[in-house]
Amino acid sequence: MLICGPKLAACGVVLSMWGVIMLAMLGIFFCTHSAVLIEDVPFTEGDLKDGNPPMKVYEVFNKVGYNCFIAAAVYVLLGAFSCFQVKLNKQKEYLVH
Fold this sequence. Notes:
The protein is mostly helical. The protein has helices spanning 6-31, 45-49, 53-96.
């Protein structure tokens, strides 16, 4: 079932590849608790008042990292869909000519 044109499908492939690379790297950096990303971690003051503040912050880091990996998986699915659309567009072009 052809949904996208050839240019949109090719754009989807390129954006998906970039999204997978970027989000996978972000996931790795969040899971390794990179200090540069501390401003992007949504922890509250309540997390700092509990028994062991560093462990709470590390848990939030890990949750954000896992969310990045999930988003990368969604981009993989979108990339597969876009590749399928590229293939269908090539078949359609071949049949027309």
